[in-house]
Amino acid sequence: MVTYDKAIYATRGHSYYFTCIPYNNYRVLHWMINKTLINVEYSNKHYDLEEGNTRLWINNVNWNDEGSYTCVAINSQGNRYARDNGVLQISVPMRTAAPPNQIIPIDMPYQIKCDVRGKPKPKVTWYKDGKMIDFKTLGRFRLQQNGSLYINPVKLDDEGKYECRGNQRGNMIRKMIKVTVGEYPYFVMDQNNVQQPSNVTAEENSTAKFTCLAKGKPKPKVEWLDQYNVPLSGEHYDLTEPSILVIKAANRKKHHSFICRASNVIASVETKVFLQVYETPKIISLSGPTNTSKREVAVFTCQATGYPMPKIEWYKDNKPIQTSSNVVTTGAFTDYAFQSSLYLFSVELYDAGTYACLASNGYSPDEERHLEFITNEPATFLKSSNEKTGLQKVVFDVQSINCTAQGSPLPQIIWMKDGSPLSETEQIKVQVNLLSTVSIKSTLNFLSLQPADSGLYSCQALNEFNDAQPPTQSFKLAVIDFPSSPRDAKLTNRSYHELHLSWSPPISNGGDPNIIYTIKYRPKIGSFPWSVFTVIDTKCQIHNLQNGTEYEIQIYTVNKAGISFRSPVLVFKTKEVSTASTYAYTTVITTVISSASTKSISTQFTPKHSVTRAEIRATHSSIESTTESSSSSRNAFSSFILVIGLIISTLINIC
Fold first, then answer.
1. Are both 78 and 13 inside the same structural domain?
2. How far apart are CA 252 and CA 274, in angstroms?
3. Which residues of 617-629 are buried (b: 16+ CB within 10 A; e: fewer)?
4. Containing structural domain, residue 415
5. CA 441/CA 577 separation, integer angstroms
6. In this structure, are 18 and 122 located in the same domain?
7. Do 304 and 387 meet the contact criterion of CB atoms below 8 Å apart?
8. Lowest mean pLDDT among 142-151, 200-209, 584-593, 619-628
9. Residue 618 has pLDDT above 80, yes or no
10. CA-CA 20 to 30 A from 127: which of 62, 219, 466, 518?
11. Residue 502 lies in a domain
C-alpha cells in the first residue's frame, strides 16, 4: 500500500487531504485518526468516493484535527492491512518573547531570554554586535532548548547588542536585545579608608550621623531601616540625602542598631551598624578636710557619673597617688554614680598639697576636681647650704646666701640686715624656689659686693601656725675693700750698698688686718726694670745697691682684696766711695751684683687702682712669686759677695 503526504502543516480554516493507494487486491475500507475510527457522519471529514475511498479530505481544519492519520485496506480473503498515512499539524507562525534590555550579573551564569515558538519549530541563531555566535569556539556560550542564550560565567566584554533570529520554513523573525553587564551592589570605603557604613559613637542628646556608601551597576538604591527591618521615618531622623542617616538626638535607651540596604536590579545587600551612645564623665562632688593636724586621719570622697560608668583616680600635686599601709582607696557603685574614697592614716607634713580626683570612662573629656589640704605644721628651717654662719668676702665678689624652710601651709621667708627688713636693689636680689608643696628655698644674691654690704644678715620663716618668735637663721658677712697707701715713708739709714726705709701703716686696711707691703725700686737713671719684694713690717732694707746711685722707690699696701695706690715716689742715693782702689773694687762687685740681682729678681710692674678682680689677684700672685725669688737670689748673691771680698783682700795683702 502506498501513502502520500506523510506530514501536512495546515492552516486553520483551510482544507487538506491525505491520499492512500492500496495494492492490487486491496481496497480502502476506512480511515482512522490517532488509531480511532473516523465517523464521517459526525465530523467535518468525508471520503472522496470517486477515488474509492483512497483520498481523505479534511475540511475547515481545526485544532482537533491534529494527529496521525491511518488508512485501513482489506483484500478478497478478508485480510486487513493498516498503515500510517501521515501526520497533520496546524502551522503556528513564529513569535518570540524577550525583554529588549537585559542586565546580567558579572562573573555569574546567566540566560539571555529569547523564547522563539512556532510550528514547525523554528531554528534559532544568535548574533552579537552583528556577528553570528559560534557555539563551538565560545565554550562559555550555549543554546538552550527554548532558544535562550546561556552564558557561564558572564564577563565584562559580553556587554553589547544581541540579536535572536528564528527561521521557520523560510520565514524569519528577529529580536534585538541590549545586554548590559551589571555588578552586584557592595559597600565601599570612604576617603579615610574606613568601610562604610561603620559603627558610630555619639554623646547623649547629640547628633549622630551614619554614611552608607555603596556601588554597583546599575547604581544601587540606598535605604535605611531600623533593627526590625522597618524603613526609618519621622522627625527624629534626617534622610535628606538617602545615603546619610542623621539622628537628631541620640538616645542610648532608644537607638541601638540600624540596617543599610543597597539594591539594584541584580541583587540586594544589607549590613547592620550599631550606635554607641555615651555620657562624658561628670564629677558630682569632691569632699574632704582642708586641714588636719599631724597623725590624724583624713578622708576624701569623690562621686562621678557617666556612661559607661567612669572610674576614679586620685592625684596629689599632679602625680598619681600610690597606695600603701597609710594610704588606702575604696570604690563602690550607687544607683546613679560611682563613689571613691581616699584614706590618709596618720597624716604627716608631706601629706599637705593639692589633691584631685579624675573621672574617666574612655570618652573625652575627663573631668577633674581639686582640693587644697594642709597639715597645720609651723614653719621650720632645714639645714642651710652655707656651712659657715660667718662669711668673709672681698669687694666686687659675687655671693649667695641660702635659707630653706618647710611648713604647712607653705611658709614665707623674710630677709633682714642688722635687724631691719632688707629691700632689693640693683646689686642685691632675692630668688625664691618652690621645692615642694611644703618646702621653699630663698636665696639672697649679691651681684657685686661692696664694703657697705658688710653686716649681720638673717632670714625668718613663718606661716599662720608659728608663734610670736619665728625661727631665724643668721649670717655675718664681712666685705674686704682695697687698702689705702702707706704713709710717711722716709730714709732711716744708708750706706754704699744699702738703703734703710720706714713708713706708717695705712689709714685703712680695707677690713683685713692681715696686710703686707710691696716695695719696688730701680736706678733713677737708665732703663732698668723694677725689682720687687714684700715685707710684713713697716720698715725694710734694700741691699746690693750701687754706691753713689739715686734710686726710685715705691711702696704699696696689699690685702685679700688687692693692692693699694702707690705711695709718693721716693728718691734716695747711696753713699759714694772716695779712693780709686776702693772705687774699682766696689765697681767690680757692684757691677756683678747689680747685673745678677737685676736678672734674678727684677720684674715689670705697673700699679693701678681701677682694675678687675682677676687682674688684682694675678698681680698679687706675681708679687708674691717675685718676692720669694728675690729672697732666694739675695742669699745666693750675698755668699758670692763674701767670696769675692776674700779674694780681693788676699790680693791686697800680698801686694
1. yes
2. 11
3. bebbeebeebbeb
4. 378-480
5. 75
6. no
7. no
8. 584-593
9. no
10. 219
11. no
